[in-house]
């Protein structure tokens, strides 16, 4: 059975992999990172120096309340407690198994001791949930390998977490001063409840013979631990937002109505843009081999489809805040893709990538992001998140030496177009919420 290896990539890469895992994004956001593989589609690769992309400044978090430090502190305390239950040199009859458990413990300890690289507090919580999960997997495997059968206790704990999640979900009435605030405050709560639901499912069952399958026991234990951590954070964020507010009205009904309307708007907009662009293959018949345009079209098409699918999943699950925010993201993606096709038709992006062109694209992306959030609009800040993630993803790839120059430039060009489309999408969503 496969287990997370841990180790060697940067904190940002681990964050992006786990979010997105964010599902959607991500808490870190509602969009995945469908940038594809690392190889060029054709042509020779251009070597990029590690600083070719650089960094981008993140705006303040759009979550409309301070996130209590006690939430991350609780995760850290629990993580360290789990690891403390496992000796550095586990006494397990199977020497190879003992060595593997010991190595896993050391990797988990190093991650726990490392600084959390997160630009928004909700992302820091996500990092700690993953660390807590890893520690639980080590402890669960160790206990199983030493003959402790936690199967019955784990089943009871899973049931308790499931009940707690259901109770919290039933209590969420989306109380907020405004519909916009409700969308921004409760989207991360919905995402955390969905994370809890995914991990509390017994998709990995505790083995009948834990001594024979300790790592399966560890994984089953880790999933319940992650579910409990997500439920804790969902309650913590909801309480943080409501704390000190004098009975704001429930916004559930209005968010549901707006989410349905926005889903229809996204569908109509996508159909209109596709028709005007020339259908499913807007640049059919043109030879874009070896150009940035080839990568730009592929990136935009995949991101747009992913964003639209995210809305459908959110609406079907009854996650109205996620659907509202996701609709804003999808409208932004659609407009960015339209702009990309228009620019390619106008003769842009039809060359290859060089170090100079990548640096210029990074600067355009940075400027576009800065302009998108210049008005201090929390909704615009939330919608620009996929662009920020895209920028940092390629920056990490280049810094680590795993760079495709054309794909790097294409992603940066797309980030610039995406961020440029954010203000209009934010205004459209805000008007529907008014």
UniProtKB/TrEMBL annotation:
Residues 32-54, 84-112 are annotated as: Disordered. InterPro entries: TAT_signal, TAT_signal_bac_arc. Transmembrane segments: none annotated. It comes from the Archaea. Residues 102-112 have a biased composition (Basic and acidic residues). PROSITE patterns: PROKAR_LIPOPROTEIN, TAT. This is Twin-arginine translocation signal domain-containing protein. It comes from Halorubrum ejinorense. The lineage of its organism: Archaea, Methanobacteriati, Methanobacteriota, Stenosarchaea group, Halobacteria.
């Amino acid at each position: 059975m496969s287990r997370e290896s841990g180790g060697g990539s940067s904190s940002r890469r681990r964050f992006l992999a786990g979010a997105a895992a964010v599902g959607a994004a991500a808490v870190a956001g509602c969009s995945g990172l469908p940038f594809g593989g690392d190889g060029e589609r054709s042509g020779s690769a251009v070597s990029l120096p590690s600083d070719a992309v650089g960094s981008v400044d993140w705006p303040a978090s759009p979550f409309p309340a301070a996130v209590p430090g006690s939430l991350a502190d609780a995760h850290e305390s629990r993580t360290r407690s789990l690891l403390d239950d496992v000796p550095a040199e586990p006494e397990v009859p199977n020497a190879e198994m003992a060595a593997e458990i010991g190595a896993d413990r050391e990797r988990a300890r190093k991650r726990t001791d490392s600084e959390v690289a997160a630009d928004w507090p909700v992302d820091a919580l996500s990092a700690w949930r993953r660390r807590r999960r890893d520690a639980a997997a080590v402890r669960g495997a160790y206990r199983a390998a030493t003959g402790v059968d936690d199967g019955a206790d784990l089943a009871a704990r899973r049931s308790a977490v499931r009940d707690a999640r259901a109770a919290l979900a039933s209590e969420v009435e989306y109380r907020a001063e405004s519909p916009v605030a409700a969308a921004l405050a409760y989207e991360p709560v919905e995402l955390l409840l969905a994370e809890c639901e995914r991990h509390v499912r017994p998709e990995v069952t505790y083995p009948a013979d834990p001594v024979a399958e300790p790592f399966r026991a560890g994984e089953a234990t880790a999933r319940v631990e992650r579910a409990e951590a997500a439920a804790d954070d969902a309650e913590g964020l909801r309480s943080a937002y409501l704390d000190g507010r004098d009975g704001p009205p429930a916004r559930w009904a209005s968010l549901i109505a707006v989410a349905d309307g926005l889903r229809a708007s996204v569908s109509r907009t996508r159909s209109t843009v596709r028709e005007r662009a020339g259908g499913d293959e807007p640049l059919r018949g043109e030879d874009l081999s070896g150009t940035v345009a080839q990568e730009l079209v592929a990136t935009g098409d995949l991101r747009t489809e992913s964003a639209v699918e995210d809305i459908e999943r959110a609406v079907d699950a009854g996650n109205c805040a996620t659907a509202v925010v996701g609709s804003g993201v999808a409208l932004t993606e659609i407009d960015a893709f339209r702009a990309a096709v228009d620019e390619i038709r106008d003769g842009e992006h039809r060359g290859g990538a060089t170090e100079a062109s990548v640096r210029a694209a990074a600067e355009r992306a940075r400027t576009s992001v800065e302009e998108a959030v210049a008005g201090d609009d929390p909704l615009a800040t939330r919608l620009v998140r996929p662009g920020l993630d895209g920028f940092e993803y390629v920056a990490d790839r280049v810094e680590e030496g795993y760079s495709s120059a054309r794909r790097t430039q294409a992603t940066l060009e797309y980030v610039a177009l995406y961020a440029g489309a954010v203000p209009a999408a934010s205004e459209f969503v805000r008007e529907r919420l008014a």
